[in-house]
Amino acid sequence: MLASTFSRWLAHRGVHYGWVVAAVAFLAMLSSSAALGLPGVLLRPLGESYGWNTEQISSALAVRFLLFGLMAPFSAIFMARYGLRNVMCVALTLVASGLILATGMTALWQLFMLWGVMLGIGSGLTALVLAAVVANRWFDARRGLVIGMLTASSATGQLIFLPIGAWLVEHYGWRMAIAPVFAFCLAVALLAALFVRSHPADIGLLPYGAKPAERPSVEPENADPGAAAVPPPSAPVPLGRALLTPFTQLYSVRKSSTFWVLFGTFFICGLSTNGLIQTHFISLCSDFGLSAIPAASVLAMMGAFDFVGTILSGWLSDRYDNRKLLFWYYGLRGLSLFWLPHSEFSLYGLSLFAMFYGLDWIATVPPTVKLAGQAFGRDRAPLIFGWIFAGHQLGAATAAYGAGTVRTLLLTYSPALYAAGTACLIAAAAVFIIRRPAAKPADLTVQRA
Questions:
Q1: pTM to 2 decimals?
Q2: Quick check: helix, strand or coil at residue 438?
């Protein structure tokens, strides 16, 4: 009943409880993003501690990205069936357990299980689909703003935790660098258990900005005694049947050129961000004599620019042709990657890279979400976007492993940077294969299973 009491206390002060749920979701996505980014700081220390080469460590991190993406089409189903609170608590506990258990690992297969499987599944349950679910269940107004802010949480996680992790590695060893993210994951899991509810009706509320006639027809779990009664929910769909839904939706768009363009460009998005820069940037900088702390600070600078760029991208996506936005985002990112090997890794060169690259790190998300909604409609878009997001993480896994292999074989990351830059330029051109929609854009919503 804590959530109901707190909701009434906020209501007397003119604050809707949906902002509390959004805040906890922001922290959950931030903690997952911090856990995904932290191994980039630990790549070299792990190699020095265990004698593993970059390719071996990168292969475990590639599994993490792959599972992170493959969970996306199913996470909305789990949230609809088991509730936001339960899914968030399980996910954050998995992430925290995978992190802390790694401090005692002795073999490479344990790295695969802990940082590949456990981190991949846990973080996948709190990926972009969580942002869409929270925004669409709890908000009728300001929905785009909420999605933009939640999406930007990945930048905030990088901004806060990577410099701290790099400092701890340098002064106390790589095991101590895990402690802040581990503690933060557990703290957010506790907040989710106390304050998150699946639907506004669970505490007798309407979504933020909804009119009274639009009250959702669900049975409150911990309803305010003064709330009006609502009809009981229909019988839940069997889990096995529900888990087949993403596959049937994928089959339905198998001949859609728009789907494959969005899937392919988002594959390149993941390849050129999470898999390459987030995973290997600190190791790349060390090849040029730059220590972990300043390298992590450059990543944090990217995160700061990305936070601004992603929210700005959400604003632009409501006003301009989303294909043209993606053209500029992918084009500028590709040019930035071509520039990086020639930056001399000076303060000026890396700052210039951080600005141009950081502004569109995940700025591609709002236009991609918009194009998916326009092409596939409000009801089908969420699960189909889940598969598009899976393409993003498949690209990240490819780059995490591929760049590590290139570094091991050739002792340089430059070919991987040039390949990713070329792929971005291809993506910039490919977005114009998508036809400009004539209909009014449809917002991305999450349909309850």
A1: 0.76
A2: coil
